[in-house]
Write a structure and sequence with these properties.
The chain has 7 helices and 11 strands.
Length: 226
């Protein structure tokens, strides 16, 4: 699908990888390349993306810049350090992003994203202002107490598992960061608090996030199958 407007991208990869035994997961090899390389190659080749800002942990910035040089990712305009929270890192990315009317925010630990998913997000944001990739929940969901006892079973109807990219009109996302405070787990929550509706579009069950070592095996199988 061709995008309506060319967009900028913020690749957020400044987390501490606590479940990866201290290893920075975005530099772990998958199918012969670092996790981050698969992400950057997809965004580099995506027609709808005009500029990329990569946000890394401070100690990884020089390594990230070298990776960009080695791979000649010409769309990467800046590699900058992130902040203590994910939302602080996205804010830093927005500070370094050029004049792009639309911005796609993507987790650097999601190496299986496709250009199609990115392009549909750009098209959705152009129409609705905010569009986020997600997939319907397939497992049974239960609310559980701190003691490990089931409180209730939550009907799956209407429950979606949110992924990235999350794509917005850039001015809308900047306004959200300027006017809404408090901790959030994703950018869409800030936009929602501002009172703007967010459109959900179908992502991909293959668009997994690397959070634990076993996820690397799954990601490698997905990449090799393509």
């Amino acid at each position: 699908m061709a995008s309506i407007l060319r967009a900028g991208a913020i690749i957020v990869a400044a987390g501490d990888s606590r479940r990866m035994a201290g290893t920075n997961k975005v530099f772990v090899p998958v199918a012969g390349k670092p996790v981050l390389s698969w992400v950057l190659e997809t965004f580099q080749s995506c027609p709808g993306i005009a500029e990329i800002v990569m946000v890394l942990a401070g100690e990884s910035v020089s390594r990230g810049r070298q990776l960009v040089l080695d791979n000649r990712w010409t769309k990467v305009s800046n590699v900058c350090p992130g902040g203590p929270r994910r939302q602080d890192s996205v804010r830093e990315g927005l500070r370094h992003l050029g004049d792009c009317p639309i911005v796609a925010v993507h987790d650097g630990a999601r190496p299986c994203v496709t250009s199609d998913v990115i392009e549909r997000g750009i098209a959705g944001a152009a129409v609705f202002g905010a569009a986020i990739a997600a997939v319907p929940a397939t497992d049974t969901v239960k609310r559980v107490s701190r003691e490990g006892e089931v409180i209730e079973t939550i009907p799956r109807n209407g429950l979606w598992l949110v992924q990235t990219p999350q794509v917005f009109l850039t001015d809308l996302l900047r306004k959200s960061y300027e006017n809404v405070s408090g901790d959030v787990t994703d950018d869409a929550a800030l936009v929602e608090r501002l009172g703007h509706k967010v459109k959900v579009y179908m992502g991909s069950y293959e668009n997994i996030k690397i959070t634990a070592p076993e996820d690397l095996v799954i990601a490698e199988a997905i990449i090799k199958s393509r």
